[in-house]
Amino acid sequence: MKEERDRLWNANYWKVMTANFSMSFAFYLLTPLLPLYLSEDFNASKDVIGLVLSGYTLTALLVRPFSGFVVDSFPRKKVLLVSLFLYFLFFGTYLLASSLLLFALVRTLHGAPFGASTVANSTMAIDVLPSSRRSEGIGFYGISNNIATAIAPSVGIFVYRYVHDFDVLFWMAFVVAFLGFAVDATIKPRERQVMKDRKAVSLDRFFLVKGWMIALNMVCFGVCYGVLSNYLAIYGKEMMGITSGTGTYFLLLSAGLILSRLQGAAALRKGRLTLNAAEGVVISTIGYTLFILVPHEVGYYGSALLIGLGNGHLWPAFQNMMINVAENNERGTANSTLLTSWDLGLGLGVLFGGVIVEYFSYSAAFWSIVGVHVAGLLMFFLATRSFFLSRKKG
């Protein structure tokens, strides 16, 4: 009986993993092609394209703190299904957007159910995991996203080259996202305590104050990835002469993420969260340094694997750390706090990198993120690790 209760790969866990894959696949299926769609169908300029597409991320960032509160305050399955229903429905509205303004509105609003769904589904994953396997299970959960990230862009590009019809892609995303909703609808979660009797509106309804240092540390790492992901292609082209290596770069990065989550599962299962986090922080720092220090293909592609390996250790460890300083009825808030911190870092990275590129150079921008990542490394070893150990539950 105990073995059954402690089973990691139970039916509910498979379902949330499948739904997470579906959400991510639908999103990344369109991501590399939306700039082309806006340019070809609406004759949008580059700056307008950037403005239209940024609305999605901004809305997701704004919604996530409130999503954590809602997930903790109401039955989680109901919140999850409402979020996922709206998420898949919005893919269908892309087909109806007949003007650039209407598409921009739809795309911006779509960020809200995306932000809510990611928080609700990851919190449901925690709920359906046996407590003895929770840390390990959170690490594996991210693999479903990593696999979708690795293959969905290539599938989207292949389909578009074959049919040259964006409506087909929108329908594909709609169907895949619906499948995620349908699978999650069959989950049978255990009853969980929700937040009650909080009389006044306070910050800890939307942000896990007791995990503030973990969140701040995650912002540092988000800044670095924000610069890398947004300026990688143009840096590779202008500084290294690599004109078609971006897809390979992110494929290697995804491979590193998956490998490290598999390799780190044993450490997570034994509760060695700070060890996993330390390995991730160090490996990622080496990866970012290699990227700028060795400006040719070895450094370029080698950094992808190292950054993937590092982030694959870092992310589940930090997520577990955040959850372990929260109460059981604050898991949604803990998840939304970490996701919001990462998103805030990504946004700051885009802004931070753009300013440095404008006034200095791409090399200066990438050297800067090495400095930021080293600062994040020092913060972890000198402050965050002891901060967590003094506050973790149990």
Number of strands: 0
Broad shape:
globular
Query: Rg from C-alpha positions?
Result: 20 Å
Number of helices: 14
User: In sequence order, what are the helices and strands, one letter per element?
Assistant: HHHHHHHHHHHHHH
Main sheet summary: none
Helical amount: over 70%
Strand content: under 5%
Mean of pLDDT: 85
Structural category is mainly alpha
- Distance linking N and C termini: 24 Å
Unreliable segments (pLDDT under 50, ≥5 consecutive)? Answer: none
Question: Short summary of the structure?
Answer:
By secondary structure, this protein is mainly alpha-helical.
Please provide a written account of the structure.
By secondary structure, the protein is mostly helical. 80% of the residues lie in helices and 0% in strands. It contains 14 helices and no strands. The protein has helices at residues 2-5, 11-30, 34-42, 46-73, 76-94, 100-128, 134-163, 166-184, 212-240, 246-269, 273-293, 297-324, 331-359, 362-389. Helix 7 (134-163) packs antiparallel against helix 10 and helix 9 runs parallel beside helix 13. The longest helix is centred in the middle third of the chain and has 30 residues, at 134-163. The two termini are 24 Å apart.
